[in-house]
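Running log. JK asked me to keep both predictions on one page so they can be read side by side. First protein, sequence followed by its tokens:
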Amino acid sequence: VQLQAFGGGLVQAGGSLTLSCLASGRTFSNYAMGWFRQAPGKEREFVAAISRSGGTTTYADSVKGRFTISRDNAKNTVYLQMNSLKPEDAAVYYCAASEGILGSSRSHRYDYWGPGTEVTVSS
């Protein structure tokens, strides 16, 4: 499956941004999806995951209550709604697809990765 993330950009602290990730090539609903991010000089970290059906979501503690992951299987798209953005949220955000059912916070559980989209948060 091929993945392409969209929606990154520059936003002020406290603002909102929605990332989208469009999947192609395989049946999208056969994959759990996840968002990860990597800031300069830091390791890639888990942000959020969603099950194949969309019924189960998981979040990193750092984004819980501020970010929302969702998916539209008819549109082959997974979203990451980011609210109350903080400077520490600035990173390159990556979407990933897993052949698992529920999704995972572990990056090695994901089989396909897209190129990232950069989010910059100004203070």
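And the second, directly underneath as requested:
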Amino acid sequence: QLVESGGGLVQAGGSLRLSCSTSDHTFSTYAMAWFRQVPGKEREFVCTISWSGGATFYADSVKGRFTVARDNAKNTMSLQMNSLKPEDTAMYYCAVVFGYSDNEVPREFGLWGQGTQVTVSS
């Protein structure tokens, strides 16, 4: 089970830090991803991080503003979101990635979390 937390309401230009945690001790063996979705729209890729944390890949829309990290000792992944914009408003989901490759949008997934809502007001 993956559990996201840290979402909320923030003004444009503000920051939020999302977390994704699990009790699964195989966490450190998988690449992970963040996606986001607005009702009525397709799920949108945000970023990936390799199993070690040594490689990351971001969507152009968040590059330079968002930073993904992981702590395998604590089975957690984080997403630091700075300079938030109203268009970042969405439900944010973390997911286990299967078939991971550096610098590619993943297409195979394991578990997904239930999501955490991020709302950015203008």
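Observation for JK regarding the second prediction: The chain has no helices and eleven strands.
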